[in-house]
Fold Phytanoyl-CoA dioxygenase.
Amino acid sequence: MTIDIDRPYPVTPGQVAAFRRDGFIRLKHVFNAEELRHYGEEITRLTIALNTQTVPLEERSTYDKAFLQIMNLWEQGGLAREFVFGKRLAGIAAALLEIDGVRLYHDQSLYKEPAGGITPAHADQYYWPVSSDRTVTAWVPLQAVPQDMGPLAFFAGSQTVEFGRDLGISDESERAITEDMQRQGFPIVDAPFDLGEVSFHLGWTFHRAGANRSVRPRSVMTVIYMDRDMRLKAPTNEMQQADWERWCPGAEVGAIIDTPKNPVLYERGA
């Protein structure tokens, strides 16, 4: 089989409308088994090789129990770079955001070990010094994710809720955000992922994941996209300041985030 990471995936107007309404969408058959094997083995190898977490699982914080987290695998070159720079995912991201192009914010591998803990409820954009909501994360499981492995779950429609946007990933975010979502009646969509299924969620959509109760690791690759014309905003917390320095070095407040670490990955018509 020929691997073509740039092959387009058609996104329908109905899917765009659903994403706009719910703040997330799950798409079937984005990748086939051969493609996931081709890229997934190298992504998993790099994740394990670059991991610096040595504290036993039972002694870690709630955040560190959730997963091993390795950032910007694309900078390792090879298959990891090829995957992150692929136009298939980036084209989906641009279509869902209803914009002409996307650039990379950063990528990250999320490796939830057997017996790994929950990923507490949170919104990603708490961490990002960006000027608009035109951001989306592609969550790509490198294997099927049954319920006992801790699939990503979303509070549908929560992207408009401001309560909880000042909370980083923690026990407090899990308690407070979950309680608020339940009080306001936002349904949680929590279901297994088929092989090749990929989810996309907005930066302000609240989401969480269960513990990995299986005996296998849950290996996931994510790519975070932002509007090609996204501008840097002045950080409003220490995490945004750290993200500016780490993921957008050299970018200036009020200017388009156009740095060597933030290449344009897709432009409509290009």
Q: What stands out?
A: Helices lie at 13-22, 33-50, 62-66, 78-84, 87-97, 171-184, 238-247. DSSP finds seven helices and eleven strands in the chain.
